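Obj.: predict assembly geometry.
Materials: sequence records (below).
Method: joint structure prediction, all chains together.
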Amino acid sequence: MKTRKLTWMALSIALAMVMSFIESQIPSFVPIPGVKMGLANIVVVFALYRFGWKEALGISMLRVILVSLLFGHLASFFYSFAGALLSFAGMVLLKHSGRFGHVAVSVTGGVLHNIGQIAMACILLGTNAIAYYLPFLILSGTIAGILIGLVAAMLVKRIPAD
Amino acid sequence: MSTDRKTFRLDILLILFFLLLSAAMFVFMHFRQQEGGWAVVTVNSREVARYSLLQDGRYVLNNGTNTLVIADRAAWMEDALCPDHICVDMGKIRYSGQSIVCLPNRVVVSIEGVSGEADLYIG
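Observations (raw structure tokens):
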């Protein structure tokens, strides 16, 4: 039982890292800083439903740390960390309310990730540019969140629990 | 089944909420936009330069990591030494409140003030 869980966690983190890497290789088609597809969130949303919030939080945080160490720099770590944490808090709240489905949880996660990341950047860079980017970030987070949520819902349904 | 339908409806509502929120912000920004007076450059959260939008020019920022161009009352990033080039792709900004952020180089160019203020300053 314990080994099984450990394996699931390790695989999930590895998969989330691969998702981040793939995403980093795709040129961004919207020239707004902070706009992301959030492929790694597929894994986090899946873990949130399949394993629970502690496991999902662990996967999300370890992914941010490992990806920043491998492909990023210190600044990108702070941006992603703020985004991931805010996004996670929102997703857990929404899921635990029991009223929303995977897609709403993922959309909230997408929007909050974008906002958290750019808010941290604005704090570090001492600018209030966030006001100008906010509508773009909400829109892109919503669209990406819908797609990510649909994929995550499909995975939760199709991958059998042990 | 009924709970599925209920969460589905709430999901749609939440998505609509976010879409309307961003649409409202776009509309609000559109009606509030005013031609700006300055392109203010900050590097590492410190203001390093302030250029009038009325004066055309090409400026090298942050020891050469970014090149800013001002022409026709607009500012844009012509070149940047970073992998993503998001700041270059962002194109021109001219309205007060708009900004170009180059995260990797920690360079921010923001439009401030209102057109006309800059004339006074130079004059």
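Conclusions so far: Residues 2-158 of chain A form a domain with the Arp2/3 complex 21 kDa subunit ARPC3 fold (CATH 1.10.1760.20).
To do: check interface contacts against the pulldown list.
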